[in-house]
Amino acid sequence: MQTGRVQQTLAGCIERTGKSLHSGKVSTVKLWPGFAGEGRYFDFRSNVIPASIDYATESPLCTTLRKDGYRISTVEHLLSALEAMEVDNCRIEIENSDPEDDDHVEVPIFDGSASEWVKAIEQVGLKVATDECGQSYERMAAHVNEPVHIRKNGSVAAAFPSPEVRITYGIGFPQAPAIGYQCLSSAPFDSSYYTKQIASSRTFCLYEEVEKMRNLGLIKGGGLENGIVCSASKGWLNPPLRFHDEPCRHKVLDLIGDLSLFARFGSQGIPVAHIVVYKGGHALHADLARMLSASI
């Protein structure tokens, strides 16, 4: 259905360089204005990988896009910011600082939130996106008309009919009392709410799982400067939190990024629905996006 506005893109170029979370290597991202109808896509070594659920593959602790042997990891925070800030069309050029990594690159983590991307988008601004002939396109949005849900290993993700975008998210970490059980519900969900309540929430982990994750080759670039760490016995190791329920809010940030992969041809990625998730993760988010995609 029509949203009542035309598709948008960036008013200028954005360039940011930083360390990645899992590989620990440095990469540079350049965001370029895109043509109307192109949507969001990555350009890695002249290989185009659309930011689409069709190219999402399961990977530990992040969302990865794969096409023709090339992989781009930890795309969720960047895509979350682009979706929430209504950047419908964008060319995302990304490159490694290490020339030996010719088939894999990871988006920088910065402080573990989407704040760096949101600030950059606000600084450069937005403009109406047009195609190569100068024509603008209507921004469309999918509406959920019948409930859909998926369950997996005690987790659930669902989408219910709603006149507006709403998100309800719950998490449970009984092994870490400082986190415990948290729930966040937003109505309605829009760019203003995202900027003030979601974008600055940082990724988090349990201290007792750090060694295990590093033995698996993960979070090599992780530290107290790019995430919040909670100990089961000692609580938060690098307070203060930005919100009392910052872990739950970060899960919403991830969800927006993962559901943005539902977008097609510059349309809205988040479907107009009440999205409800409990104990979710990137794989479950992607499964919900695939289920929604298969229903249209």
UniProtKB/TrEMBL annotation:
Q: Which GO terms describe its cellular component?
A: membrane; mitochondrion
Catalysed reactions, semicolon-separated? a UDP-3-O-[(3R)-3-hydroxyacyl]-N-acetyl-alpha-D-glucosamine + H2O = a UDP-3-O-[(3R)-3-hydroxyacyl]-alpha-D-glucosamine + acetate
Q: Name one GO molecular function term.
A: metal ion binding
List required co-factors: Zn(2+)
Keyword set, alphabetical order: Hydrolase, Lipid A biosynthesis, Lipid biosynthesis, Lipid metabolism, Metal-binding, Zinc
**A UniProt-annotated Pfam family:** LpxC
Keyword Protease attributed: no
What pathway is it annotated to?
Glycolipid biosynthesis; lipid IV(A) biosynthesis; lipid IV(A) from (3R)-3-hydroxytetradecanoyl-[acyl-carrier-protein] and UDP-N-acetyl-alpha-D-glucosamine: step 2/6
Q: What is its EC number?
A: 3.5.1.108
GO BP, one annotated term: lipid A biosynthetic process
Is Hydrolase among the key words of this record?
A: yes
Function, as annotated: Involved in the biosynthesis of lipid A, a phosphorylated glycolipid that in bacteria anchors the lipopolysaccharide to the outer membrane of the cell. Lipid A-like molecules in plants may serve as structural components of the outer membranes of mitochondria and/or chloroplasts, or may be involved in signal transduction or plant defense responses.
The similarity annotation says: Belongs to the LpxC family.
Name recorded for this polypeptide: UDP-3-O-acyl-N-acetylglucosamine deacetylase
